[in-house]
Design the sequence.
């Protein structure tokens, strides 16, 4: 036996992109096709769709209701840094040589155009310095490079000697967090997390004293845990 | 649908028109609008009256002339030659081709403020003279309607009357046409209100009434106070009234068939023949063939209608049915292949034949019953057919009452007219005049959503108090701008070219503004939305609203030649919409 499911006012409201109260009012005023049974209005889906078409009203499609343009997924700073790896004692006396040497040393996927990466980093650096203060810099390419990334990758590079990056607070840079992300959105998310980490005094001192990689990662994990819990 | 506005003449060219012209104009322009419309109404009525009488006379003389050519060959070829000639004259010589008359007038009063080309005041007259006289199946009413309307529109344009008056006098032209052709002033007024204007506003009725009366006077003076169909008295009894219900059903069916046939023929002819002359040749030939076998379908058909109303027609039911269908076909072919004329007269003929046919069926089913006679049913059938094809029940009623000179048939007339139009609307949503316009989405009745939207221009909605920013700006630089601006949106423009690159929404950046690390290291390019749907000033407001619906946005940037002009927001649109609706609502 075929079961013809009738829609409730709430479902019709969702279908038409309006409020349930409006739909109930239309039903009472006889403007919209419906059936009244025991004080409840029910509607037939294809009647509603035809009615909407005749009145030039839009009907929300099934998938439209559920899809959000960017599903909220959380990014993990720790994972990104683990993926990127650590480099210590990088040589370089100015922005150019530092970036150049870093690009050479970083473990990019096979066939990556290092020249392009370097140019993009320089391009971004020229618009505004990525030295965000307290000796930390966050170089990243100006445009999202096609590195076939699914998740962000953040190589951490400690310099042999501090270099002037024109940072906002004027301090020389001693550590760089290179940020490679699949999209600008993800880049901003990771950046936010990193910024929160940098506000932590303990984390900063770990960095300054070139602590062990595990210690640094552990600290990041802890900060991220607190963050995820409070969200 | 783009915005189509008639341009007003440049006042500077007045300087070249000297003397009487300028003085007359100046006097006129300063008159009270009601006086203005009255004067134009009189002029229009005179013109339409003469046009109607003239066309009538021309048709008589020309068909008389062509009648001397006897022989089958002529019968078949004349309609074709007529249609081809019509097409040539209208398309290439006068250059006013296309449009069947009445829909053009309706379109003009809905969207173009009553603007019609001056040449339309004579082009369709000439065209239909050729088409109908040579045997094409069409009516001489529509040409007079558009002629009257066009003259009214041109005069209103010449005196630079406002749009409201222009619409009213275009309508008056239509009223005068019907009034003078049928010696039926009320029908003329009702036709204009019911069909052309689509509304009954008493303010505008003055010029319509004046021109209707004037047209009727002209017609009476020149043709005498006669009616195209002789006055007859009918003795209507109760059986007739019941029987007319069935008539409504029968005529409703005929109306639907006619409307569908008209649409289908037009569409098919367009598909088969890309070039108008070939279409005219083929269609005309078919019309000729039809008139060869069914001479009654020739021309406008008033001769047969007179016979039917006078009760002087007799035939077999099956033949009558065939005749009705052939007339439908002949009319569809004539008009579909480029002939000039209207559907009014053919509808009258079909209706009266339909009534006759129904009566024959009735006497078959109820042989002993007492009915007044076939003539009554023919008469009522006419009103019913008009009602069904034009969706104009009142016009049908008043026309029949006025042309029979009597009130006798009013009861069946009322019943049948309204019944038929209600029944037809079940199958065909739009009348013959409206379906083309509805198809193009330009059938806009006053104070409807579509009409209001068509009147608002996007430029009226543009909001420009936004502060532009560059992609290379650091977020820190935005802080003073955020403080200064009353807006939460910032358009991003390329620093060198000024091209629009995207929008920055405050909502997206507010978290970063409070992070000292981030506010210095994030640039606009990294936070802007670059894949935004934009709209243009040349889009219609209706289209812009659809864009709002599909993108779920609350405001849309307006970009022209890659440059950002401003925003259009849904909220402001509501404000404007309400104001427009209030401005359009009648004041009494």
Sequence:
């Amino acid at each position: 036996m075929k079961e013809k499911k009738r829609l409730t006012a709430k479902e019709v409201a969702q279908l038409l992109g309006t409020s349930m109260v409006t739909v109930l009012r239309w039903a009472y005023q006889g403007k919209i096709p419906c059936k009244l049974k025991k004080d409840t209005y029910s509607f037939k889906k294809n009647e509603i769709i035809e009615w909407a078409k005749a009145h030039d009203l839009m009907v929300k499609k099934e998938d439209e209701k559920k899809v959000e343009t960017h599903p909220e997924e959380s990014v993990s700073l720790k994972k990104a840094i683990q993926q990127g790896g650590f480099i210590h004692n990088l040589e370089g006396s100015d922005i150019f040589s530092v970036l150049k040497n870093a690009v050479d040393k970083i473990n990019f996927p096979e066939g990556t155009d290092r020249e392009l990466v370097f140019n993009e980093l320089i391009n971004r650096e020229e618009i505004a310095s990525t030295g965000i203060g307290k000796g930390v810099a966050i170089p990243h390419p100006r445009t999202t490079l096609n590195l076939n990334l699914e998740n962000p990758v953040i190589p951490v590079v400690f310099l042999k000697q501090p270099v002037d990056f024109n940072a906002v607070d004027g301090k020389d840079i001693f550590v760089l967090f290179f940020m490679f992300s699949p999209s600008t959105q993800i880049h901003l998310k990771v950046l936010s997390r990193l910024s929160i980490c940098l506000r932590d005094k303990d984390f900063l001192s770990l960095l300054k004293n070139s602590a062990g990689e595990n210690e640094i990662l552990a600290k990041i994990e802890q900060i991220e845990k607190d963050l995820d819990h409070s969200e | 649908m783009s915005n189509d506005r008639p341009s007003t003449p440049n006042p500077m060219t007045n300087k070249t028109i000297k003397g009487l012209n300028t003085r007359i104009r100046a006097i006129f322009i300063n008159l009270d609008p009601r006086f203005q419309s009255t004067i134009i109404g009189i002029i229009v009525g005179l013109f339409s009256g003469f046009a109607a009488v003239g066309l009538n006379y021309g048709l008589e003389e020309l068909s008389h002339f062509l009648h001397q050519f006897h022989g089958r060959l002529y019968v078949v070829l004349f309609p074709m030659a007529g249609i081809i000639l019509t097409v040539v004259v209208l398309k290439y010589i006068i250059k006013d081709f296309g449009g069947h008359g009445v829909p053009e007038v309706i379109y003009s009063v809905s969207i173009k403020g009553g603007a019609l080309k001056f040449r339309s005041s004579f082009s369709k007259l000439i065209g239909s003279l050729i088409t109908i006289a040579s045997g094409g199946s069409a009516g001489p009413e529509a040409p007079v309607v558009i002629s009257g309307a066009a003259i009214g529109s041109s005069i209103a344009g010449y005196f630079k009357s406002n749009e409201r008056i222009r619409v009213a006098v275009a309508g008056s032209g239509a009223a005068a046409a019907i009034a003078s052709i049928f010696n039926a002033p009320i029908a003329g007024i009702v036709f204009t209100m019911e069909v052309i204007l689509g509304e009954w506003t008493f303010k505008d009725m003055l010029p319509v009434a004046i021109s209707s009366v004037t047209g009727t006077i002209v017609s009476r003076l020149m043709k005498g106070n006669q009616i195209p169909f002789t006055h007859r008295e009918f003795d209507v009894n109760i059986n007739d009234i019941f029987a007319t219900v069935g008539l409504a059903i029968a005529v409703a069916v005929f109306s639907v068939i006619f409307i569908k046939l008209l649409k289908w023929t037009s569409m098919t002819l367009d598909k088969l023949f890309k070039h108008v002359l070939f279409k005219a040749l083929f269609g005309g030939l078919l019309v000729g063939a039809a008139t060869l076998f069914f001479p009654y379908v020739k021309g406008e058909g008033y001769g047969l209608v007179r016979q039917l109303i006078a009760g002087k027609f007799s035939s077999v039911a099956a033949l009558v049915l065939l005749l009705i269908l052939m007339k439908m076909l002949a009319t569809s072919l004539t008009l579909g292949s480029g002939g000039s004329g209207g559907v009014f007269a053919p509808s009258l003929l079909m209706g009266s034949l339909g009534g006759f046919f129904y009566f024959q069926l009735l006497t078959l089913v109820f042989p002993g019953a007492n009915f007044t006679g076939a003539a009554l049913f023919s008469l009522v059938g006419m009103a019913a057919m008009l009602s069904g094809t034009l969706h104009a029940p009142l016009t049908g009623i008043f026309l029949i009452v006025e042309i029979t000179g009597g009130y006798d048939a009013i009861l069946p007339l009322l019943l049948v007219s309204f019944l038929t139009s209600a029944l037809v609307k079940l199958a065909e949503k739009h009348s013959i005049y409206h379906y083309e316009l509805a198809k193009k989405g330009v059938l806009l009745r006053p104070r409807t959503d579509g009409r209001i939207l068509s009147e608002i221009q996007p430029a009226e909605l543009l909001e420009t108090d936004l502060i532009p920013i560059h992609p290379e700006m650091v977020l820190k630089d935005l802080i003073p701008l955020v403080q200064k601006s009353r807006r939460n949106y910032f358009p991003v423009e390329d620093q060198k070219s000024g091209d629009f690159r995207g929008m920055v929404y405050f909502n997206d950046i507010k978290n970063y503004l409070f992070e000292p690390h981030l506010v210095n290291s994030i640039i606009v390019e990294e936070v802007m939305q670059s894949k935004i749907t934009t709209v243009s000033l040349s889009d219609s407001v209706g289209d812009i609203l659809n864009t709002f619906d599909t993108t779920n946005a609350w405001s849309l940037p307006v970009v022209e030649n890659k440059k950002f002009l401003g925003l259009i927001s849904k909220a402001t649109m509501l404000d404007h919409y309400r104001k427009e609706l209030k401005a359009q609502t009648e004041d009494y």
